[in-house]
Amino acid sequence: MKILIVGSGGREHALAWKIKQSEIVDEVFCVPGNPGMDAIGPCFDVDPCDLHKMQELVLQVSPDLIVVGPEAPLAAGLSDALRARGFDVFGPSEKAAQLESSKAFSKDLMAKYEVPTAAYGRFTDLTEALNHLETMEAPYVIKADGLAAGKGVVICQTLEEAENEVEAMMTGKFGDASAEIVIEEFMEGEEASIFVLTDGEGAIYLPAAQDHKRVGDGDTGPNTGGMGAYAPAPVVTPRMMELIQALIVEPMLSGMAEDEMPYQGVLYVGVMITASGPKVVEFNARFGDPECQVLMAGLPGDIVPALLVCATGGLVHAHAELSNMMGLREFQPSACVVVANEGYPGDYAKGSIIGGIADANALEDVTVFHAGTDKDSDGKIIAVGGRVLGVTATGENLREAVDRAYAGVDAIDWPQGFSRRDIAWRALK
Ligand code: AMP
Ligand code: GLY
Description:
Layout: E1 2-7, H1 10-20, E2 27-32, H2 35-38, H3 51-61, E3 65-68, H4 71-75, H5 78-84, E4 89-90, H6 98-101, H7 103-112, E5 120-123, H8 126-134, E6 140-144, E7 153-156, H9 159-170, E8 181-184, E9 190-198, E10 203-205, E11 210-211, E12 214-216, E13 220-223, E14 228-231, H10 238-258, E15 265-274, E16 277-284, H11 291-298, H12 304-312, H13 315-326, E17 334-341, H14 357-362, E18 366-370, E19 373-375, E20 381-383, E21 387-394, H15 398-411, E22 417-418, H16 425-428
Helix pairs in contact: 1-11, 8-9, 12-13
């Protein structure tokens, strides 16, 4: 079987790495891929959001399954375009992917299906939005409706800050993406990331993960795409997982199916574990990055049959068998530490040379996933992105996984790189 992976981040390297290990997979292709994925299978230099070129590529490669990693091509309708050509695609339709690409759409669906989330208002009129702020108490949560590269959520501590933010967003801070905004109630609690593999009807729940969004140790400094992750996250107890299934995931999946936009692929539920139960912070239409790295590393079995059934249907009947094949019950504690480029999440330089990746990969149960890397003209690995590597390890327990991941980080020779040193602190404390 031939599988095409769409994307070029640490998430997609982890997917390619895991999928290549499957006994039923002969070849993995990547578009556009990265130097880590290049070592797994051929990479094609095509923009995943260019639907015309993507259709040409897919007709040429003729994969048995296409796995779409990032949100932008999903929001651009890549799954629909490739399905219309007769291909099996793991990834939601453009319509269903609005769960991520429009916060207002997502909030309205949650309201309709009575899924617990923060109270909200949606606004296209500046005066109305400012008036609404007056009726609220601090802190204020202001969200751009559309995709804003992970920067579209701002939490303001004072009314003045909130007014300034609302005005900035509604006058073009994120272009069209913030012409409409959502203003939300602030939720107090601990966050976790839940991933559900689904064909629109059945659902397989992967172990809960936790991400570390702030750039600095102790959860300080600005937000990032995620500086590290671990799984399983003990904050999501078996009882909490049951509540998340019953109150959030099941109503969303059945509601969307009834409303003729069945959700296929992986549903990412960002949950806040509050004193009054789990509430949705956001939905994403894809795996989290770096949460995907720890999930792929920790699953001992084969995930490909499950991805295939999600794309083609019939998950309800195959559920137990697919969970066994994946080795869900034997999931190994896993941690990923992101090595980022000096200056991230602000400006950073490109082109510094990274050594030691092979040394890190040689350590027991350590795998280095590439994210923002490229090769220079001598074939040396260089940094070209903000989040550059995801050093991922498994262990008998979380402590061992974390220690192994940091041993991997310490084997990397890259003076311009930095990491948080406290990944998984909430679980280890
Ligand atoms: P999002 O992009 O929606 O995940 O938001 C980014 C981060 O902002 C989340 O991970 C939360 O830490 C925080 N956040 C978003 N919405 C809320 C809310 N209503 N209450 C508290 N924190 C929130
Ligand atoms: N790690 C958070 C995200 O992928 O959105």
